[in-house]
Design brief:
It contains eight helices and eleven strands. With 295 residues, the chain is of the alpha/beta class.
């Protein structure tokens, strides 16, 4: 079995669910989203009508997190078959991705890199895909790329296909599981309109991870973290990859102008009663009794 070079891409996003209602109501009055000390972005780098997320933690998109964990499981399975593999991770954006990159190094990723940009790429799939593809070809030289089927608040689901087009590789979307075969091929489980299907694929290829059963990244131990405490992710600029980011952003057709919170409140009633028995009787008398009489 020949060695396989695996690369997993991920993005990070503010945990918008953790924002208070007051943060949404003051959007546009203060610094733009992502600005502030320690966040790696300049104030004013993004649109004006965004909530202030400087003090909100950065999280992985669920599909990207699944891709990272599946990449680790694929590595474990390859080693179990007596094969060899190299595992790398890359992210595109500001410095808020670096804690996640250091976590991945502690988990056994050999390579970790960030393509630095202060630009907001949530609604720039063409630019994001061009940077991922350029890193894959010029720097990592991997033959299997794994990433989430969609990523971030503005993910439109086209990034995996755009990357595959740049690379000239086939793209398998909505993958939920991947297993190595003894002959070097991969058995991929994917979700289709007709249900789960399995196919056999050769590398190089792109796997876009969908609703995988494995949705959480494993947690490194303190010993794991101490073992790589001196290692730092590689930082590259778009120019290092031969990419003119300004030119790509100028061709994007979507612009993020504002974000609004979704009101998830639902109408409800308060059932009277001092005891569970009294509440059950009140609920029966007010709601269920009339329904039973109609039967």
């Amino acid at each position: 079995m020949s060695a396989m070079r695996i690369l997993a891409y991920f993005g990070v996003t503010p945990d918008y669910e953790a924002l208070r209602e007051s943060e949404w109501s003051t959007a546009g009055r203060g610094p733009s989203s992502g600005g502030g000390e320690g966040d790696g972005r300049d104030e004013g780098a993004g649109p004006a009508d965004l909530p202030d997320t400087r003090y909100v933690r950065r999280i992985l998109d669920c599909f990207d997190e699944s891709a990272l964990e599946l990449a680790l499981r694929l590595l474990d399975a390859l080693v179990g078959l007596g094969g060899t593999a190299g595992l790398g991770a890359v992210s595109v954006g500001a410095a808020d991705a670096e804690p996640h990159l250091k976590t991945l190094l502690a988990l056994g990723f050999e390579r970790a890199a960030r393509v630095h940009t202060e630009a907001v790429l949530d609604f720039a799939p063409a630019a994001t895909a061009a940077l991922i593809a350029a890193y894959t070809q010029r720097i990592d030289r991997s033959d299997l790329l794994m990433l989430g089927a969609r990523s971030g608040p503005g993910g439109d689901g086209t990034v995996p296909f755009r990357v595959a087009d740049h690379l000239g590789w086939p793209c398998i979307t909505q993958a939920t599981e991947v297993e190595p075969l003894a002959d070097g091929r991969l058995r991929v489980t994917l979700m289709t309109d007709d249900g789960l299907q399995r196919l056999t694929a050769r590398t190089p290829c792109v796997l876009a991870i969908g609703n995988a059963v494995v949705s959480h990244l494993r947690v490194p131990t303190l010993t794991d973290r101490l073992a790589v405490r001196g290692r730092q992710p590689d930082i590259l600029e778009p120019a290092d990859l031969g990419v003119d980011l300004s030119e790509l952003l100028g061709r994007e057709t979507q612009t993020l102008t504002a974000l609004e919170s979704v009101d998830r409140r639902r109408e409800s009633i308060l059932v009277p009663g001092d005891t569970p028995r009294a509440k059950a009787q009140a609920l029966f008398d007010s709601r269920l009794k009339s329904l039973l009489e109609e039967l």
